[in-house]
């Protein structure tokens, strides 16, 4: 039996300094391992305990660990998890499937065909973002992998009514809007992590799928898995989002990441899915 473990990365498995959530006294803070360096500076962390558990999990021949992220390939490749490299990785919210680090061209063609058929073109959405965002709070505007767009903003200054109007405008065109930290994502609705996860499960013959994530863009992934977890922070927690097969953890910050890896390991060992939740 093969267990596929598909996990979101940022604010689920790995955490920036701002997202660590170290609310305990300094002397009780967990030891941290840096797993990402950007422009010669440490950027993302796990607890040392989580890193060791993940390395052990990924080394299990019955487990396929699949990093699953909205990051671009270049952003993903900065991350250095302990243990052996993941044979599969899902990037660009499901738009890129990496096999031993190499993009799968057939998968990308299939994704492109579906987007062309089911939603408004990227150029229209990107243009709308640029036309409506206020330079007073807009810091950067980016297009990722020619698949989706995002803005880097001063979050506290973004008017809620602007975000609400953008969400409605995008939904009418087959796109989803997600606010994560200082980034506002506009992603085609058919571009999903769950579709890519199912493809990896098909290729590997996985009989059980486990997943974790914290944002609106992870909801489809969590629902598609046999068992899933979300941390006590993030878009899904803020919305009190829940589903029968999804465990809502109380832990927040980097300790939530540690608890998620524990849950993956515990559930993978049992060889069960939903029945082991909370065990």
Defining traits:
four-stranded antiparallel β-sheet, 279 residues, alpha/beta, 33% helix, disordered C terminus, five-stranded parallel β-sheet, 26% strand
Descriptive overview:
The strands form four sheets. A five-stranded parallel beta sheet has the order 5-1-13-14-15, sandwiched between helices. Strands 9-10-12-11 form a four-stranded antiparallel beta sheet. It has a three-stranded antiparallel beta sheet with strand order 2-4-3. The model is unreliable at 272-279 (pLDDT under 50). The protein is of the alpha/beta class and 279 residues long. Helix content is 33%, strand content 26%. It contains nine helices and 15 strands. It has helices at residues 48-59, 73-76, 105-118, 122-132, 160-171, 193-204, 219-224, 235-238, 254-270, and strands at 3-7, 15-16, 32-38, 41-47, 63-67, 88-91, 96-99, 102-103, 138-144, 148-153, 175-180, 183-188, 208-212, 227-230, 246-248. A hairpin with a 2-residue loop joins strand 11 and strand 12. The protein is globular and about 50 Å long.
What portion of the residues fall into strands of 2 or more residues?
25-35%
Q: What's the main sheet like? A: 5 strands, parallel
Give a count of the beta strands, DSSP E runs of length 2 or more: 15
Structural class: alpha/beta
Question: What is the topology, as strand order, of the major beta sheet?
Answer: 5-1-13-14-15
Helix percentage range: 25-40%
- The succession of helices and strands, N to C, reads EEEEHEHEEEHHEEHEEHEHEHEH
Radius of gyration: 18 Å
Unreliable stretches? 272-279
Form type: globular
Mean pLDDT: 95
What distance separates the N and C termini? 20 Å
């Amino acid at each position: 039996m093969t267990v596929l473990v598909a996990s979101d990365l940022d604010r689920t498995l790995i955490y920036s300094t701002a997202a660590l959530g170290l609310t305990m006294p300094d002397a009780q803070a967990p030891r941290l391992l840096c797993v990402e360096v950007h422009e010669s500076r440490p950027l993302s962390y796990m607890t040392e305990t989580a890193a060791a558990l993940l390395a052990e999990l990924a080394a299990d021949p019955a487990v396929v660990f699949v990093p699953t992220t909205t990051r671009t390939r270049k952003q993903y490749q900065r991350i250095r998890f302990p243990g052996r490299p993941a044979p599969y990785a899902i990037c660009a919210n499901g738009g890129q499937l990496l096999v031993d680090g190499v993009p799968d061209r057939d998968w990308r063609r299939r994704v492109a065909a579906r987007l062309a058929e089911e939603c408004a073109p990227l150029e229209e959405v990107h243009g709308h973002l640029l036309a409506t965002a206020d330079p007073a709070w807009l810091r950067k505007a980016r297009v990722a992998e020619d698949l989706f767009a995002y803005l880097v903003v001063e979050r506290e200054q973004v008017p809620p009514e602007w975000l609400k109007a953008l969400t409605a405008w995008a939904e009418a065109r087959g796109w989803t809007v997600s606010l994560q930290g200082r980034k506002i994502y506009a992603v085609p609705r058919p571009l999903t992590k769950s579709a890519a996860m199912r493809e990896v499960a098909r290729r590997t013959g996985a009989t059980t799928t486990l997943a974790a994530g914290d944002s609106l863009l992870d909801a489809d992934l969590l629902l598609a898995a046999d068992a899933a977890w979300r941390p006590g922070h993030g878009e899904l927690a803020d919305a009190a989002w829940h589903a029968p097969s999804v465990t809502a953890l109380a832990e927040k910050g980097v300790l939530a990441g540690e608890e998620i890896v524990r849950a993956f390991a515990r559930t993978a060992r049992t060889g069960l899915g939903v029945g082991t939740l909370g065990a």
